[in-house]
Amino acid sequence: HEYFMYELHRTYKNKEEIFNLFLNTVNQDGIQIIDDFKFLEHEIPSSSYKVRTGGKVEKIEKSRKIVVPSVTVDDLSLSPNQLSEGTFKTLALVYYIINDESQLLLIEELEVCVHHGLLNSLIELIKIYSREKQIIISTHSDFVLDKLEPENILLIKKEKGTQAKGLTKALTKNEYSALKEYLEDSGNLGEYWKEGGFEKE
Asked: Pick the residue with more confidence: 105 or 192?
């Protein structure tokens, strides 16, 4: 939590365009989870005393700046720790999907604490930004699988180490044809997985 707040504040101060893109993605113009996000800066005066040679006491006046993040939701000003875990996680995910400059972004279990409406928005955002960088998500969610194309699925198994195979390579040609036929005629990828379609893997 602290690291995300630190990164977000740095973007707020130094990358106004990126911060505004983040804000417009999460506020009422975007996925509508918050109304606004600000950082309020306060100067806090403080005093200290120093004893000089000869016993003379010198008062030293200082001030320090504290930064307080403030989130507006339905006209209420809240601190980030008053947000639900799902809302906070969604804010962080959106920020890193938009702002992370590496060529590879790993997201573990996107679906945890995020309701389906937001999850759908996050998946669409990932699809957009995956044109710029490789984004790999792990999931145990049939809902997430339903939003993906079979060519974009990797099956992971632990057998003599961890192995990852693309769905097209993990299945035989006949199995892959059967899967495509199933998807066209009767079901979706999440149902196929839940019914044991990938059990061999």
From this structure: 105
Burial classification of residue 107, based on how many CB atoms lie within 10 Å of its CB (0-12 exposed, 13-18 middle, 19 or more buried):
middle
Question: 43, 36 in Cβ contact below 8 A?
Answer: no
pLDDT-derived band at 130 (thresholds 50, 70, 90) equals: very high
Per the CB < 8 A criterion, the answer to whether 24 and 35 are in contact is no
| DSSP state string for 136-147 | EE----HHHHHT
Residue 52 gets which letter from DSSP?
P
Q: What are the residues facing 163 on neighbouring strands? A: 157
Three-state DSSP class for residue 114: coil
Q: Name which residue leads in pLDDT, 177 or 90.
A: 90
* Paired tokens of 129: 């930004």
CA 106 to each of CA 73, 97, 114, 129, 134: distance values in angstroms, whole numbers, following the listed order: 29, 10, 17, 13, 9
CA terminus-to-terminus distance, the chain: 36
pTM metric for this prediction: 0.80
DSSP secondary structure string, 148-196? Answer: S-GGG-EEEEESSSEEEEEHHHHS-HHHHHHHHHHHHHT--HHHHHHTT
Give the other-Cβ count within 10 Å of 25's Cβ. 18
